[in-house]
Structure formats: structure tokens, C-alpha cells
């Protein structure tokens, strides 16, 4: 294994090229295709704006879109509100009870010195008639979207008890034809709602398998370079990257250990696709499997002590687990003719993976205690499931009208949504860990 | 000129090979080949400097026709070489044996079903299976490189079984 260090030269290339496209943000809006029957009723009143010029971002609009996308909340349209308070004095619980609302969000945005904006908000429990939480922060106009996501996270946590994932990111690969038989591949990182996508790496050869480091600062991925596939480990802030590649065959399928010490990957440099473990501190790789079968798609357990991976050692691809200390191997999946690309939930209680049954490829989840497998999706040709850090949802790639699109599904399979794209094919999504 | 001599030499070797295996297993197209192997013998005795005869010309063009076939197809989730492609691969192996300076790249592909990483592995295994076969027939490891494209470069863009069958392939690139 060779390790090379180089500087990514396209760190700024995206700015000019994409900024224009990304203004058409509504094209990336995620559409909820199915939600819960009994949803929590929430009113988000349009925030007061004390400035004279229109703001590029509406914080209340961001909150409304975030909550709506989860499928857990029923949001009251502003025109149906009996009043639109912007401070606590204007809140009359009786009005909101008449509308059968359970929670209320109000807020204000005011210009302060230096072109900055002071944003304040409050969340009320209508049933109990009390203010639950609130706060204010002064930010630059360019940070309004980040603040909207932070407030959404807080509201989600106070109402459901589960930390929100609106401030997390999703990495994915887009593929656009440039001429007959040629494509441009871009590894992009976007907000969890698909907005503000920026290109972190691009190539005219395929890019696959993006994988986040546990601290969210680095992304590893595989890119075909000439006749070799190489693994790149790129630091997001600087754009600087290291590569791992073999003398022969391909090197791909990187996965960081949650403790940040190792990178598991696959290489066929010695003939057959085998698992390897790269140690960041020593700079050395250790080979983990040695057989004549395909071993691929390694992913760490939350405690970094074991790997789950896809192996066809039993004849068909199934999910296996290897204890890294003892090298003991256990087969985990038995249902379905193929099971591929598994990932642990962050609490380690279940796996999500691609499950082939009756010739179709769906996303499925398996409870590790009961070993019960549940198929979560109704789409076909599903790939690359990636769980949100709070374990409530996962993003995956599927096909619609011959094009790759991203889709979301809740872990109980009840809520689904899709993100149409303006980029052509969108493939290989990977959900970031919590970033703060 | 030198190259056509080499192809001719490979063709003769190939004719001998076909004659040899026709008696054991192959039928059909290889049977046709045996009928034109006037210059070859079924023994391992081989003379490369025989006169150019009608039969030899015919073997050379048939050999070239086999070399023109550069795609080998595979069954779903399989990397075993199907028997119908052995004749074509035998020709390519002979060609490499006769031309030690010649090298090829075997490009392995998979259909879109399954995950990208698994298909990358499958494409690699298919290319490797073809490489192993060619080496078994005498080609040198140094003459062969493999590269997998996984499911990333389909030739048929549809999602029917026929499209998938066309995409599960190894392309031999000289």
C-alpha cells in the first residue's frame, strides 16, 4: 500500500460554477410522500422582521420545512391562525386550543449594528399553557440558515425527547453526462435538507462510497484513477487529501472506526477483494481476510471493536461480523437471497442493509436481539442506506424514471420522502455524524 | 509483417489446440475448425514453417474472427467462464503466447442490481477469472492487467433481463 499526500486543487472551483445553480433551491426540496397518521400539531407563526430590506432566509420557514419533513408534525398554515403573535404577551393559549394545537413557536428578527441580525424565539406547550424554552442569538445574514437548523434541533428535542438532525450534513455523489459516454462526477456535501450543496471533489471517473469520520471533519471515498481505484481521505476544511492504493486491482469501500484510529477498506491488490485495516498512527495496513470469496463493504460497530461486512463465503452475499481482537467471524443474516452493505445504528441495537427478496432490492433493518428483519422501503434497486445520527431515519439511493434519486425513510418504515435533483443522477448518500 | 507472421504462428498453434480438444469435448463451431486443420496434427508435434496452404489461410481468418470477439458474458452474480466462451478465450491466450510483447487489459463489469461496492468486487472477480483462464492457457501474468468498472459503465441502459445480461461482461482491450 502506498500513501500519497497531495493538495486538492478544486477547493474553490465549486463556488463560481455552482453558486448560480444553487440559488434555485426549491428544486432540491424534499417531498414527503408518506407520513404518520397521528402527527403532533405544531404552529410556527411567521417571525417578525424589523428591518427594511427582505431577508434571503426566513428562519420560521426553515423551521417549518424541517419539522414538516420528518413526517411527525402537522403544521398549521399561517392563514388559519387566529392571531400571529411575535412576543409572549400576544400568546393566548385559548386561541391555539380552539385550533387543537399542541405546540406553538414564535420569534422575532431585528437588525443590529454591523448588518447582523438578532433572532429570538420561544416554544410554548399549549396543552399545559407554559413557555417551554426560548433564546436569542445575533448572527450574520449568511448564518441565518444555520441558526434556523439549530432552533429546529432544539424544538425537535424538546417536543419528542430525541435530538434533532437538522444541523447535520449529507454527502452524496452526482453524475452528469458531459458528452456521449462521458460523465462528470462530483462528491458533494449538503445540509441534511439537501440545500447548500458544495462540491468537495470532482472527477470524470466514477466516485463511490463516501464515508464520514467520527468527528465529521474528514470524508473518505473511492475514485477510479486511470486503471486503478484509489481510496481518498480528504479533510473537508482544507481540501487536503491522502490516498491509499494498491499496485494491482482496486482499492475501495473505506470506513472510519468511530474512535478515529482506523480506516477499514477493501483491496484486490493480492488478487481477490479482501478486507484491510489501515492504522492512522502507524501508517500501516493489516490484511483481515484471506480466502477466494468476495469480502467487501466493511463498517465498524459503535465501539470500534468489530466490523460487519458483506461476504459471499456462504455462496451468496450475506452480512458477517468479525471481532477485531479474536478475528472470530459470525454470520448475521440468513433471510433473503442476498444481504449487502450493512451499517450499525449508533446505539448498536440494529443493522440496516440492502436486502434482496424476490428479485427486488430493498432497504431492511434487523433487530440484533431478536434477529427480526423488517423491509422498510417499497422502492426497488435501493442502494447505500445511511442512518441519521439520532437513529430515527435513514437516507438511501434509489431509481426513479431511470435516474438516481435520494430517498428518506423512518426506521419504522412509516415516513418516506424523496429529493428530486437538478444534477442528473444522485447516488451514494452518506449521513454525517452530529457536527457540534 | 512480423505481426501477421506471429498471428499466423498463433493460428497454427490454435488449430492444433482445437484439433486436440475437438476429440475430447468441443462440438459445433470447433468441429468446423477441425475440418480445416490440414497443416496441423493432433499430436504436440508442431512445425511453424509449413507452407502456406488453403487450409492454413482459412485457419488464420477464422482465428482472426475469434480474436475480433472481445466480450465475454456472465451469469447473474457469477464469475465462472461459460463454456461457450472458451474457444474465444483460447484464441486470445494463443495470441498472447505467440506475442510475448503484447499485453491486454481486462475490463470487468456488472449489472446495476446490488450495491456498487459488491458490483465493483464482482467486476474484478470476472476480470480475474478471465485472466486466470488465459494464464492457464499459457499467457504470462505480466501481459494481463485487470480493471473493474463495477456497475458504473453499462452498455445497455434499460432495466430488463436482456439489458442486464449485456452488462455482465468482461471486455478484452488490446
Q: Helices and strands in order, then pairings?
A:
The complex is a heterodimer of chains A (436) and B (174).
Chain A: E1 2-7, H1 13-22, E2 31-34, E3 40-44, E4 48-49, H2 59-69, E5 73-75, H3 93-98, E6 103-112, E7 116-125, E8 130-139, H4 144-160, E9 169-179, E10 182-191, E11 198-203, E12 207-212, E13 218-225, E14 228-235, E15 240-245, E16 251-256, E17 262-267, E18 274-279, E19 284-287, E20 295-300, E21 306-311, E22 318-323, E23 329-331, E24 338-344, E25 350-357, E26 360-367, E27 373-375, E28 383-387, E29 393-400, E30 403-410, E31 416-419, E32 425-431
Parallel strand pairs in A: 3-5, 3-6, 4-6
Antiparallel strand pairs in A: 1-15, 2-31, 6-7, 7-8, 9-10, 9-32, 10-11, 12-13, 13-14, 14-15, 16-17, 17-18, 18-19, 20-21, 21-22, 22-23, 24-25, 25-26, 26-27, 28-29, 29-30, 30-31
Chain B: H1 2-22, H2 29-35, H3 54-67, E1 71-73, H4 86-98, E2 104-109, H5 116-136, E3 144-150, H6 161-167, E4 169-173
Parallel strand pairs in B: 2-3
Antiparallel strand pairs in B: 1-4, 2-4
Helix pairs in contact in B: 1-2, 1-3, 1-4, 3-4, 4-5
